[in-house]
Amino acid sequence: MRQYRRAWLGGDLTAGLVVGIMIIPQSMAYAMLAGLPVQIGLYASLLPLLGYALFGSSMTMSVGPVAVTGLMTATLLSPLAVAGSADYLQLAIWLALLSGVMLFAFGLLRLGFLANFLSHPVINGFISGAAILIVLSQLPKLFGLPGWPDSPAALLAGWQRSNTVVLGMGLLALGWLLYARHGLAAQLQRIGLSAALAGLLAKLAPLVVVVLGVLVTWRADLAAQGVPVVGSIPAGLPALVWQTPDMASLRSLLLPAVLISLVSFVESVSIAQSLARRKRQSIDPDRELLGLGAANLGAALSGGFAVCGGFSRSSVNIEAGANTPLAGVISAAVIGLILISLAPMLAWLPQVVLAAVILVAVVPLIDLASLRRAWRYDRAEGLTLLGTALGVLLLGIEAGIVLGICCSIIAQLWRGSRPHVAVVGRVPDTHYFRNTKRHLVETEPHLLALRIDENIFFANTKAVEQAIYQALGDYPDTREVLLILSAVNHIDSTGLDMLSELTEGLKERDIGLHLAEVKGPVMDQLQHTDWIGRQIGQVFPSTDIAFNTLGKVANRAPEHSGE
Amino acid sequence: MRQYRRAWLGGDLTAGLVVGIMIIPQSMAYAMLAGLPVQIGLYASLLPLLGYALFGSSMTMSVGPVAVTGLMTATLLSPLAVAGSADYLQLAIWLALLSGVMLFAFGLLRLGFLANFLSHPVINGFISGAAILIVLSQLPKLFGLPGWPDSPAALLAGWQRSNTVVLGMGLLALGWLLYARHGLAAQLQRIGLSAALAGLLAKLAPLVVVVLGVLVTWRADLAAQGVPVVGSIPAGLPALVWQTPDMASLRSLLLPAVLISLVSFVESVSIAQSLARRKRQSIDPDRELLGLGAANLGAALSGGFAVCGGFSRSSVNIEAGANTPLAGVISAAVIGLILISLAPMLAWLPQVVLAAVILVAVVPLIDLASLRRAWRYDRAEGLTLLGTALGVLLLGIEAGIVLGICCSIIAQLWRGSRPHVAVVGRVPDTHYFRNTKRHLVETEPHLLALRIDENIFFANTKAVEQAIYQALGDYPDTREVLLILSAVNHIDSTGLDMLSELTEGLKERDIGLHLAEVKGPVMDQLQHTDWIGRQIGQVFPSTDIAFNTLGKVANRAPEHSGE
């Protein structure tokens, strides 16, 4: 606090105001997505901002309800309670509480690295799958229906005037929001506003549909004609309540809390990192865990649901000039003021407006480009992405994520299990050695130099052994084998056993085995084994020296007269 | 068959006879261990030998009931039926059938490589854990008890004369078997036999306790006094019966069959490989699958239970001079003759004799040396071994194996997630580049050369990025970064995304990024990416050339006057 500079205040104030206004429709929309009353979204936008400001490491990230955690709350809780019931709300609060405790504990235990085990294809697949699920969940709201109709015929048979009204409002809202996203800023610039101001005003466009929606519904009394509205919202700030969850709920919420924590963390860290890069700052994953944990504890304490860093709100925050977490505090104050003063009016807000806000936000998350890119780069990664997305869609969020993690681990093992082993020779008149199959190189007649291009571990020991024996078959005059370990960063005990047996096998054929370019850490570990100690021949610092030395040794035999 | 040489016949005949006699007690013992009537063990020693002879690739491996598959049959089937019941026997036969079908199908599909995913620590841990389970299951039999007493007090309270008799017989049998294993051969040599003959006779020692046990129990009518005996055995060969399993049984046997197939395959392949090495032959894992599949189908067809390659029987086979699978056929004939002629007499065989045979066979499998070795080589591998063994002991065989596989995969990822990244410099007056922390080397003032000693993939992208930024902090004057990829055999899409962001980050600081020693396969994959195509600077074939070129470029700046 002492270090706060007055020059930062202007930016923080503007950003706080803009983000505060912008996230009102968002927060309500994501609460609706989570199957909760819309004010819960607003409650979840107060304390979390303060909690994150206290512990988080990103100066400009804005936390609150986001689409993915909204969806996860809905799908993880729906087997446990009826959406909209008091039990359901209680479970949603406890889910935030449990996830806050977990994230905070993970931060204290410095377990931030765990998020590294989610590969990009898994994250991208998950986001795309979740986005499709969200779109599917909101489409019926565009027609004013409580859920998907059994058939198109049923939809037409049950069609009423109110459905037409809702669909009309929905399409207008969608149109306005899309225009705000793609054309409004340019239009505002054309009428003379600065680029920055035009951009900020465009971000506030969702508020226009909210205000218009409320006004129209109220004046035309559309709620009475069957247009689904948000319904009465208690005025004022949420009461701070601590309710200790019972054991049975805790147990059933454990896995959901792990998953929502993991996803929130990965999402938030990647957002925080991309923000930090823009400002040339750096973030600390373990402090991010603490910040997110505090944010979720704050959400639970004020009767909100699970929160996480949001990409659009954080971008707007930084674009509007936020310098410090004070911007977040001001955003929270704006929402608090709205809750105290204007909450009762939101009762007339048509649900379809919030559905339109959600649809416009999540459709761009369905990312076919990343699928195409992953597929082109590596089939296994494309399949991982596709598998995760389909898993999320067809089997559910938990199963999809687990399936994705399994796919990416199996792909990694699979790659490691098929090592590239090259017979190398000297590039003429140099000290370099290259693959005989890719380059014109010189080899020694009785020396077989093999470069193993993979760590030697259980999944590939057989393959490495086979490749070596195969090379011996191709070069039957071999007297000395040189293994070049420049690309071997680790040898596990299964690999060591194989190498030891291989050395014995070669010895029986009267062939010596030598090593070159063993890396420091590998040598440290092998130092005390029988293999290095007794079984093998020499260990050379470079292939060049090994070639010179062994070339002579191998050619010493009577049937071959010198070089 | 046409290629059979007459010179092989002598060895095959001897080996066939010796192994045939030797495996009679073994087979009965392992059937008892599996919770089956002892003759089932003999039935499982006939057709499997022929089936394997037809399809297998090892010339000298002997298949039949072994301790580990006996134990697995018992633990996998005990939740499904009462040991000793007709249902239980039927399930055991179907388990062999299903496992035979799977192994044969895997062989046809050439899935032999799947066994590579069992690392040595997992296999060793599993064998040790299973051996301890077997010992625990046989100890009560040493006291003539049906199972473990509730307490030592209960044991003493219920003690009867028959318990003393059984314990006495058991200790005598154990003593004899241990002597046969460790001292008998030397003693026989001392009385003038050749080393080979003495060794073979010592292997037949178990038959002596079997014969003595039958004679004593019969003469003293010990069965009537409460000494548990094997009980009546139907004389003659088993009828060949094909019974199609019902769907419910098939479903419950599916996972057990997968596990028993996997373990049998791994066991058999490692035995076959060590045998093949002794005779300088080679084996084909896919043909081993076919051979084992046929063996298990044979076992099922003749009313036996699951079989696999046995280490002791195969060693004896090779030591006794076996040259071809004909030896196995002769062993089968020996057992068939015993079944036809002597089976009824085995009714008097005390169970404690078989328990002694089992104990002497499995205690050496509890392998503390491999735990010590793994622990010393790498803590993670020691923990994997220990975790597998404890998992098998405390959670059961399935859970233990799965736990072990998970441990070894996590250990592998964990290693990969902590890459060694070295700042390198030139070894004076050479073309070699080494870690600045381990060697006295020369560096260029504005060039940071980093060697990344690990494949770059999702689990370590953050760590690699961090290491590079850390090195930049240590060398703040850096103008050009050179990544030496000699030890990078693969870059996944998560890694590529990181490298691409890193390059942008460096560009913002006005630092260039270049590559050296990119491996052929890595370059092939990167060829069409934006990263190689547009973002990075130059790609050098060797660090030497890169150092010479970039050293000059980096030092071009005014504040530094040439080299």
Automatic annotation (TrEMBL), chains A, B:
<keyword id="KW-1133">Transmembrane helix</keyword>
<dbReference type="InterPro" id="IPR002645">
    <property type="entry name" value="STAS_dom"/>
</dbReference>
<keyword id="KW-0472">Membrane</keyword>
<protein>
    <submittedName>
        <fullName>Sodium-independent anion transporter</fullName>
    </submittedName>
</protein>
<dbReference type="InterPro" id="IPR011547">
    <property type="entry name" value="SLC26A/SulP_dom"/>
</dbReference>
<dbReference type="GO" id="GO:0055085">
    <property type="term" value="P:transmembrane transport"/>
</dbReference>
<dbReference type="InterPro" id="IPR001902">
    <property type="entry name" value="SLC26A/SulP_fam"/>
</dbReference>
<dbReference type="Pfam" id="PF00916">
    <property type="entry name" value="Sulfate_transp"/>
</dbReference>
<dbReference type="InterPro" id="IPR036513">
    <property type="entry name" value="STAS_dom_sf"/>
</dbReference>
<dbReference type="Pfam" id="PF01740">
    <property type="entry name" value="STAS"/>
</dbReference>
<keyword id="KW-0812">Transmembrane</keyword>
<dbReference type="GO" id="GO:0016020">
    <property type="term" value="C:membrane"/>
</dbReference>
